[in-house]
Amino acid sequence: MSNLMKSYLKNSTSYLKSAFGKFHRIFKTTSICDYKSKAESLNFLYCTDIFNKETEMNPNPHFLTKQFRNIGAIFSTILFCFCCTIEAKEKGVYYNLTEALQHPTDVRVLDLGPPEGGNQLTTLPKEIGNLQNLQTLNLNSNQFTTLPEEIGNLQKLQKLDLSHNQLTTLPEEIGNLQNLQTLDLEGNQLATLPEEIGNLQNLQTLDLEGNQLTTLPKEIGKLQKLQWLDLGGNQLTTLPKEVGKLQNLIMLDLHGNQLTTLPKEIGKLQNLKMLDLHGNQLMTLPKEIGKLQNLKELNLVGNPSLRSQKEKIQKLLPNVTIIFD
To answer: 138-163 burial string, b = 16+ CB within 10 Å, else e?
Structure first.
């Protein structure tokens, strides 16, 4: 390889990085069967850039033809390897509902969230329940108001993202998802939760921020593996005492509700590290809150009645960073 060729390849690193960045974005929403045609198109576009660059470096036609052929071959090889990598990585990943339903046993990940700007899906067919090997289902930023009961058939599902839809209820079959670890329901219109939510024995993350919840079912206390619970931006006035059974809870976000009191059982959350209560109407805090030995941060901003109790609260939690205003 000539020194000029080596020099060019060295200087073309930025071109390669740029190309691969675009390449990944192009392939993100592409099925495996389209890889080859898109790779060929990208190869042509990239080699066109190389040709223009080489023309500036050396106008000799014979030199250009030879060098261009070499670079084109190299880039084609790189693209082929990259295609193989993506094919292996993306196996079982689908971005199209129709295609997924045509290969029900192959689907591991179904991503129907927005690549850019959002989708317009309003209903989910009952055939979704046929995806027996599905592990991740992303339905965020659509316009779903309900879910089919067949969603409860997804026994291997580990992550379910339903954020930013228009859900008003959840089917009781949601409780059949025994392997579910993450459930994201942020930004919906849920006023209640089915008691079957307590059957999600492996749930670790539950995001309910920005709904219209006024109460929580006592079954919430059955979520023994729950570590992260976000209830911010709802309309809760009280919490069930069963919340104290969430022994593995690390983060509890209750900001922007209408809480006036907390149950004394809050003091049983021995692993809790962060408690956000800002923007409520708390009149006082139970003395049991002082039992939260692992608590690191407590946000009390926007609870006017607690300002006069500042010293008392600080004595209860001497090692905690407390934000009053």
So the answer is: bbbbbebeebbebbbbbeebbbbbbb
pLDDT tier at 95, thresholds 50, 70, 90: very high
* Closest alpha carbon to 220 in 235, 206, 236, 238: 206
Distance, in Å, from the CA atom of 322 to the CA atom of 173, rounded to the nearest integer, reads 40
Q: Which DSSP symbol is given to 293?
A: T
> Which domains are present in the chain?
3-89 (no CATH), 92-176 (3.80.10.10)
Q: pLDDT for 148-170, tens place per residue?
A: 999 999 999 999 999 999 999 99
- How much is the CA Rg of the chain, to the nearest whole Å? 27
3-state secondary structure of 109: strand
Quote the pTM value: 0.74
Is 137 exposed, middle or buried (CB count within 10 Å of its CB: 0-12, 13-18, 19+)?
buried
Task: Give the residue, 48 or 305, on which the prediction is more confident.
Answer: 305
